Amino acid sequence: MDAMTEMVFDAPAAGSEEADILTARMFELGAEGVTENENGFSVFWPDEVYRLKQEEIMHLIAGYTFRTIVHAPRNWNSEWEKNYPPVIIGDQILVHAPFHNAFPDFPYRILIHPGMAFGTGHHSTTALMLRLMTEINMTGKTVIDMGCGSGVLAIMASLLGASEVTAIDNDRNSVENTRLNIGANHRSNIICLEGDATLLKDKKAGIILANITRNILLSDFDSYYQSLLTGGFLIISGFLKDDLGFFTRKSYEYGMTEKNVLYEKEWTAAVYHKPEK
Question: What is the CATH number assigned to the segment(s) 4-74?
């Protein structure tokens, strides 16, 4: 129940290319949430992060007009629940909360107790990751989900037949939320750990999922590669269309093959294959 600083922008319009790029850069600096308002959008920051990153934030938004609202500590999970619609991806995947009404059957249903953790399925990058995951054979595979957020991707990997799933996040709230959702979905083959890419040192997996931010993906790419078994797949998102070239070049440096790329709005997700030697 931390205090939050809300930055309210009346322009650019929510959902526009300009707004997507701006909010993506703010997430990279530590923003934790975005909501649409009547004219534009609001970005939410933990108060401490907002103060520490003040100079970088002001440099990023130079030329934009905004106002701030400081919110006293409250139960942000309850606030989030008020505006949490179900997510339907194609005709295969339903991501829903306990308070949603009944829905027709879907092959894959993921029950999420919504919190401030990223990755509830509403953001384009989570939806892109879920779509790519359905195109990969995960039966019997060991999977690692880096930056697990609410655990949606880890749970999906389990539903797709993974034999063992390790979910990792450096945010304690995300870890707690993921563990809650693992139990809610009765997934006994998922463990959740608090930490970062250093936890990969002694781990191997046939599939690694990473829906984080561009800079973290680039800095941790070597760790992903070292932990990925030959013949395995790295599925990543959290970056914009204009940033795809960074990962195309990085994968080429490591001898990996870019197998698939999906776009939604300005966001991108990609699959890389580590060939057999």
Answer: 3.30.70
Please state the rounded mean pLDDT for residues 133-143: 97
Neighbour tally for 249: CB within 10 Å: 9
Report the Cα–Cα distance between both ends of the chain, in Å, rounded.
Answer: 50
Q: What is the pLDDT of residues 179-217, one digit of tens each?
A: 999 999 999 999 999 999 999 999 999 999 999 888 899
Cis peptide bond upstream of 12, omega within 30: yes
Given a contact cutoff of 8 angstroms between Cβ atoms, the answer to whether 227 and 208 are in contact is yes
Question: Cα separation of 64 and 15, whole Å?
Answer: 16
- Residue ranges of the domains in the chain? 4-74, 117-273
From the options 3.30.300.30, 3.40.640.10, 3.40.50.150, 3.40.190.10, give the CATH code of 117-273: 3.40.50.150
Q: At what angle do helices 152-159 and 172-184 cross, to 10 degrees?
A: 30
DSSP assignments along 92-130, one per residue: TEEEE-TTSPP----SEEEE----S-S-SS-SHHHHHHH
pLDDT in tens, 223-259: 999 999 999 999 999 888 999 999 999 999 999 999 9
Specify whether the CB–CB gap between 96 and 112 falls below 8 A.
Answer: yes
Question: Would strands 4-9 and 41-46 be described as parallel, antiparallel, or unpaired?
Answer: antiparallel
What's the pTM value of the predicted model, to 2 decimals?
A: 0.77
Q: Let me know: does 30 contact 59? Beta carbons within 8 Å.
A: no
